[in-house]
C-alpha cells in the first residue's frame, strides 16, 4: 500500500485527497488537494466569487505518535462583498481556524473534563489558543434554537476573577441549562438578552425568577411587562435571617456585649434562632428554650423568621392570606429590622406570591453558578469574559461533543 493511500484512510479528511506526505524531525506534513471545483466563501457560503490569488494554508491536526501532524492545502483566496478577502471553505476546518475540526473537537472535549493548563500540555498548544478553540467550538455546537419556546427562566449573577467581576446568566428552568450569559450584572446586561430575542420569543416567556435586584426587575418590566416576576425564596428567607440576626445583635450590644454574662449568653444563641428546629442539637434547643423564657424580643424575631420560612410550605391558596398576616405582624412588631423588612416585602409582594404559586426558585441557577465558579477556578482565572462564557456554555448548556473517529 502506498503512503498516500494509507494516509487517506487514516486521516479521513472529507472533500480532499492526499497528494504527498513528508516526514520531518518534529512533524509529519501532509499535502492534500480539494475535490471541489467551485470555491465557496468560508464566511457566508456565497458562490461564484472572484478568485484573487492562490496560497498554501496549513492546519494543525491530531498528533501521529510523538510527531505533530500538519495538513497543507493550496487554497483560492476570494473577494466577498460581505466578508472581504477570505479563503475558500474547507470541510475539515472551521473558518479562520489554524486547526482541523478533529483537533478542536478533541481539545474542547478535554476542556470539559480537565483544567485548561492540562489541556495545553496534552495538546501542545498555548493557553490563549485553547480559549479561541473553545469559542469556535461553542459557536458551532451551541443550539441556535435554545431561545425558542422559553417559558420559565431564571436570572442570576456569578462572580469571577480576583477583582470581583460579574457575569449575568440566564437559565431555562425546564431544561436546567444555561441558555445565555454576558458580562456585567445590571439592567443593561439583562436588556442585551431581551434585545436579542424576537417578538415571538419574548411572548413565550411566562415567568422569570430573580433575586430582589432592582436592575434586573427594571429590564424585565421594560422588555416584557406581561411576564410574571418571581422573587427567589432563598433570597427572601435570607433577608428574614438577617433581620432576625440583627435583632440578636442589637440585644447583644444593649446588654454590654461580651463584658457581661448576659451578653455572652446572647452571643451563643445565634444558631438556635436561625437554624431549623428539626436540625438543632439538644444544646441548641435548650438555648432556644431559654430565649423563650428570658428574651421576648429575640423570641418574637425567631417566630417572625420561622413564619416567613413556613410561607413557602403552605398550600398555594393560603399563601396570600398568610403573607398579608405576616406583613401586618412584622409592621407592628416594634422590631426595627422586621419593620424595615415588611416594607421591602410589601413592595415586592406580587413577586413573592408568584414564586409560591409557580413554585419557582433560583436554586438550580445557584447550582449552575457554583459550577461556573468551579470552571473559573479550575482554569486559574480567565483573561477575558468571552473565554469564560464559552467555557460555561461548553459545560452548562448541554453541549455533547463527539470524539474524532468514534
3D architecture notes:
With 406 residues, this protein is α/β, with parallel strands linked by helices. The protein has 3 domains: 98 residues, no CATH class; 178 residues, Ribonuclease H-like superfamily/Ribonuclease H (Nucleotidyltransferase, domain 5, 2-Layer Sandwich), CATH 3.30.420.10; 126 residues. Helix 2 crosses helix 4, helix 8 packs antiparallel against helix 9 and helix 8 packs antiparallel against helix 14. The longest helix is centred in the middle third of the chain and has 22 residues. The model has no long low-confidence stretch (mean pLDDT 89).
- Measured as a percent range, the helix fraction is 40-55%
How much β-strand is present in the residues? 15-25%
Mind summarizing the main beta sheet?
5 strands, mixed
Q: Low-confidence spans: pLDDT under 50, at least 5 residues? A: none
- How many angstroms does the end-to-end distance come to? 24 Å
How many domains in all? 3
CATH superfamily of the largest domain: Ribonuclease H-like superfamily/Ribonuclease H
Query: Do you know the CATH architecture of the largest domain?
Result: 2-Layer Sandwich
Shape: elongated
Content-based structural category? alpha/beta
What sequence of helices (H) and strands (E) makes up the elements?
HEEEEEHHHEEEHHEHEHHHHHHHHHH
